[in-house]
Amino acid sequence: MSEQNTAPRTASPPVVGILGAGRAGTAFARTLLAADVGVDICSTRPPKALQHHLKIYAPGAEPVAPEQIAERTRRNGPGIVILAVPQEELDEVDPAWIGESILIDATNTWTYSGEREPLPGWLEAAVTEQLPSSMAIAGHFSPARTVKALNHIAHSDLDDAAGRDLPMTQRRALAVAADDDQARGLVMGLLVRMGFDPVSLGPLAAGRVMEPDGPLFNRPLRREDLLPYAR
């Protein structure tokens, strides 16, 4: 057998897709890339028009068409797409782009001067009934497996908060909520790789405390701060 045939193969790095190339989406991309995770990212702009933007805000991220956002992550694992599109624009996202991938819902419902931002009708109905927005998103984007995560840390904090070289006990803790145990576990593994200490709160409904009016939102937390909210 030749030396060429016996040489070990170099495994391809995992890839994650990101829907949305704004400040949040590019912040997620930078943190993933720093953790040696490949990134495919899309926006309303075609991939060629997105290239210059990414060179500035997320060097190394690959611009793709929206319908391609889940292709490489399904081939190279872990089959995760991050939703970083403003909730008012969610009707512009075709659920078929995500398919059966794991969908990290990193979105929030925002209120300005006492009035809620305009939302798609299906989401407005759920929020009016005081349901966690992720539950409506999970229904709308079925058969994707929705996991609530990465929404309660400010995108401006991500670069500095990721502690990839720190022991788990010294890392910033991030909450995770999902109804699918396997999907939750894969997202928690991704957060560890990004440099955080993930804490499962339980089912998707438990993610209510992660929203902007909840006790976990935009606070630097440790594991012991999150455990009282776990179900």
From TrEMBL:
This is Dinucleotide-binding enzyme. Pfam families: F420_oxidored. Transmembrane segments: none annotated. Residues 16-108 form the Pyrroline-5-carboxylate reductase catalytic N-terminal domain. Keywords: Oxidoreductase. InterPro entries: NAD(P)-bd_dom_sf, P5C_Rdtase_cat_N, STEAP_metalloreductase. It comes from the Bacteria. The keyword Oxidoreductase applies. The keyword Oxidoreductase applies.
